[in-house]
Design goal:
alpha/beta, five-stranded antiparallel β-sheet, 13 strands, 23% helix
Length: 349
Amino acid sequence: MTTQQIPVVVLAGFLGAGKTTLLNHLLRGTRGTRIGVMVNDFGDIGIDAMSVAGQVGSTVSLGNGCLCCAVDASELDEYLEVLTRPESRLDVIVIEASGLAEPQELVRMVLASENERTVYGGLVQVVDAAEFSATRQRHPETDRHLPIADLVVVNKADRVSGAELLAVRETVAGLAGKAVVVEAVHGRIDPELLFDRVVPEGEIEGQLSIEDILYGEDEPHAHPHTGYETVSLTAAAPLHPRRLMAFLDARPEGLYRIKGFVDFGAADPDNRYSVHAVGRFLRFYPERWPEGEERLTQLVLIGSGIDAAGLRKELAECEQNGPQDAPDEHSMWGVLRYVQQTEEEPEAS
């Protein structure tokens, strides 16, 4: 049950930055992934195959297993309840914020939600590379929004020179702090940065999908995977809870997502811990070891500009080194801080 929570991603950015273009890119390449979309705006909503002019409070099918509804922010929790019903079978929910919305308010509402079927999936802030300086002048709150983002997409990277793009990226990175910054053209980022794509039954992972064939010629030079790296790690020795938490608390810039399972050995011999980290957010979910399954730590780390060899070395140093290195009775306290209690609001790391 704990591993089936639906990530809720908040997609923000000022008018014209390319939020809807990015969202359409995600929807068009869903393949087997079912996406729920909540649009926090009024009037015409430019999502492919859909027009919800004024239909606030409506939920419609996008025809590819995805759903969309237009809601007021005050209705967010109500529609999370609708979209997380088991019959909807959604894999991820994306909230597209109004161009004038305060993203931290939407993030706060997601974190404060009492819906146990959801988990925070991060704040994605989209900026227009060509209009960035002008946008900061018109909307000085940009400098307040970027530091709370988990991922910043510098969109329309093809509309500026290389030197201009570098200057925008450096300014954005300086404002965004530890947020991961990636560049994009026409909002094309790899969905793996945001959520796990579902491969339809009978389809081989990595092969061309119908969507790839239909839309591939529109994106002949699009290689969104080049904006980030994925590092997979497997450890046969249990990890020491304290050393792992020290690693997670100081995780390097550019490391955006962490997912997988952790074996803490004698510190909790009955359970493995599913880990979900996005940006500054961290959550552990204890669950019984499946009978007969080999006890391994298996993690996938996703980020931009990350040092794969360095990450492997740091995580190898978290492994327990025999009986003399066994964790003490208090060693799990740091981990348990990030195990969600139903009566408490989730914590951010």
